[in-house]
């Protein structure tokens, strides 16, 4: 009864809001009729305060309505709300229940979140082997956070997940993630090519991935290009002007080490007027 009252109240507020989207009436009508996708979308708008005042509790109530109808994105969101206690009580056991329901529908997000729950023993009895199996499953299904997580574990070895260091596997996971356009994966793939970790050393390929990541705003990739130009690292020739350009781009993101390097270039007048 209380939940229904909250839902009706939220509809009134959402409809009255001057900034509500043009489709709000249609969305509300569809949600009221029990359309799971509409209920989820309306819940998301209210939960995040888009087109109406932010109301975590009411947003959660709409998403729960959707999740109970089996809508997979809503099941993941409800699980996350229970896990963190946002919009509802904090209950990691209920969170896991919803992750399991989403996972049963092959939700890669649900599978990965369930893997984390098993790995940490959060809301379920800890089972590292099960956590690893689910993380691998999510990665194989193309879920980038799982690919990155797995790549990092293989890169250094991870005692808490019983993952043995394997640079070739780390390289493979980063490569798969980089193929999706993930800038962090591109950066790390560039580093592995430059260092010859898990693959043959290749500065040309390293630079290729640094450039790809840098163009997406990755500050360390921008700095690495600066470094290549500054020292004339193959395949680039020394070019202080280009080095300054990339170092400036990186330093704008407030990275301390980049600012130190940029200060050195100003002090010595390298690629810029001496200052």
TrEMBL record:
Residues 1-20 form the signal peptide. Keywords: Signal. InterPro entries: Sel1-like (IPR006597), Sel1_AlgK (IPR050767), TPR-like_helical_dom_sf (IPR011990). Transmembrane segments: none annotated. SUPFAM superfamilies: HCP-like. This is Sel1 repeat family protein. It comes from Acinetobacter pragensis. The lineage of its organism: Bacteria, Pseudomonadati, Pseudomonadota, Gammaproteobacteria, Moraxellales.
């Amino acid at each position: 009864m209380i939940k229904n009252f909250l839902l009706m109240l939220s509809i009134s507020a959402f409809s009255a809001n001057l900034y509500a989207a043009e489709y709000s009436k249609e969305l509300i009508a569809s949600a009221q009729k029990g359309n799971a996708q509409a209920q989820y979308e309306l819940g998301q708008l209210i939960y995040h305060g888009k087109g109406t005042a932010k109301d975590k509790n009411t947003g959660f109530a709409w998403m729960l309505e959707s999740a109970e109808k089996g809508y997979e994105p809503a099941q993941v969101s409800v699980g996350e709300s229970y896990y963190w206690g946002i919009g509802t009580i904090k209950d990691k056991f209920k969170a896991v229940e919803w992750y399991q329901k989403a996972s049963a529908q092959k939700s890669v997000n649900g599978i990965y979140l369930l893997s984390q729950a098993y790995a940490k023993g959060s809301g379920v009895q800890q089972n590292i082997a099960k956590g690893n199996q689910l993380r691998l499953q999510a990665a194989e299904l193309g879920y980038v956070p799982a690919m990155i997580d797995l790549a990092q574990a293989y890169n250094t070895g991870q005692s808490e997940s019983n993952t043995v260091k394997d640079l070739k596997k780390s390289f493979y996971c980063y490569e798969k993630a980089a193929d999706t356009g993930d800038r962090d994966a591109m950066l790390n793939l560039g580093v592995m090519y430059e260092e010859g970790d898990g693959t043959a050393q290749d500065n040309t390929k390293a630079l290729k991935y640094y450039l790809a990541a840098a163009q997406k705003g990755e500050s360390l990739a921008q700095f690495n290009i600066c470094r290549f130009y500054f020292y004339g690292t193959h395949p680039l020739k020394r070019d202080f002007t280009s080095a300054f350009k990339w170092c400036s781009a990186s330093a704008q993101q407030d990275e301390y080490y980049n600012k130190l390097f940029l200060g050195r270039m100003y002090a010595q007048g390298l690629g810029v007027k001496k200052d």
